[in-house]
Design brief:
Layout: H1 2-13, H2 16-23, E1 35-36, H3 38-46, E2 53-56, H4 60-65, E3 72-73, H5 80-90, E4 99-102, H6 114-123, E5 129-132, H7 138-141
Parallel strand pairs: 1-5, 2-3, 2-4, 4-5
Helix pairs in contact: 5-6
């Protein structure tokens, strides 16, 4: 009887694991049409067109070490506080303003910040929303390529 109860409990728990894995946001859930390559961000920065609003949605330590010049640190979007800071940062912007989100804390498929940030702004109705695709990390995919960098706050 005891073995039967343990087996039944195990059968109830096993199906829950895929559901648990799906609760963690994944950068791969961001539509490919919303992605922008680092080299395209540099081209936008150098163009005479209106500059995009660039928001770093990851670690403050990472932002202090190196970030895109002119970008704003808004907090880690994997936290409720970071998402609130993100909402506050864009509250006065028109919904059709080009916004580029980026993090770069870790490889793309493990980033806990870009998908919640994208989802938050998409839900708010922003129509020109892009997420910079950082495959490895900010150091390798931006700094080491010689793209413009600022340091500190």
């Amino acid at each position: 009887m005891k073995a039967k109860l343990i087996l039944m409990a195990g059968l109830l728990v096993i199906p829950m694991f895929p559901a648990l894995a799906q609760t963690r946001p994944s950068a791969s859930e961001i539509p490919s049409t919303a992605l922008i390559q680092p080299s395209d961000v540099v081209a936008l920065m150098q163009s005479k067109a209106e500059k995009p609003v660039m928001l770093q949605v990851g670690s403050h330590v990472l932002f202090q070490q190196a970030h895109i010049p002119g970008s704003e640190y808004v907090g880690a979007s994997s936290t409720p506080e970071g998402r609130q800071q993100l909402r506050n940062s864009v509250a006065s912007l028109p919904k059709n303003r080009l916004i580029i989100l980026y993090c770069g804390c870790c490889p793309w498929e493990h980033c806990p910040n870009v998908q919640p940030a994208y989802q938050e702004l998409h839900t708010m109705g922003f129509t020109k929303l892009k997420v910079m695709f950082i495959q490895n990390n900010f150091g390798k995919d931006w700094v080491e390529k010689g793209f413009p960098v600022a340091k500190g706050d």
